[in-house]
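Long-time lurker, first post. I've been practising inverse folding by hand and with some scripts of my own, and I keep getting stuck on stretches where the structure tokens seem ambiguous. Below is the full token string for one chain I'm working on. Before anyone asks, I'm not after the true native sequence, just a reasonable design that respects the backbone. If someone could post their per-position residues I'd love to compare against what I wrote down in my notebook.
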């Protein structure tokens, strides 16, 4: 089993920044890719970004490319999502997920999910 705990959500003005964290624990979580998803009210859960625990490769959706940065701290078993230049349409519950062997935009590819953290972009 793998446990994921997100933190760092909140209310931010358009153009502002937030950093989300996802702390991982449990068995074999380093074998999987780590990803961020988000889900806005009335919409399907969508892929945001992904990273492995090794190497330098990162993956982003087109909607966040150039504004969001995914990273990790192996010593802390924690993944981050730095979100800059936030827009109204970034408002959603953000989830971290793992359990997939490779980056996948389909939520059903992932076995483990955090509880989610709310990000609201509003003036």
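-- Answer (accepted) --
I ran through it position by position. Result:
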């Amino acid at each position: 089993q793998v446990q994921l705990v997100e933190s760092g959500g909140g209310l931010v003005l358009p153009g502002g920044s937030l950093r989300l964290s996802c702390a991982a624990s449990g068995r074999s979580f380093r074998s999987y890719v780590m990803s961020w998803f988000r889900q806005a009210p009335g919409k399907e859960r969508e892929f945001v970004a992904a990273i492995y625990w090794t190497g330098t490769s990162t993956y982003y959706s087109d909607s966040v490319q150039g504004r969001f940065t995914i990273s990790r701290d192996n010593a802390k078993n924690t993944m981050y999502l730095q979100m800059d230049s936030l827009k109204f349409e970034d408002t959603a519950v953000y989830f971290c997920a793992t359990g997939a062997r490779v980056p996948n935009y389909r939520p059903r590819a992932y076995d483990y999910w955090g509880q989610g953290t709310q990000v609201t972009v509003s003036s």
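A couple of notes from the structure itself: The two ends are 40 Å apart (CA to CA). The first strand starts at residue 2 and ends at 7. Happy to go over any region you disagree with.
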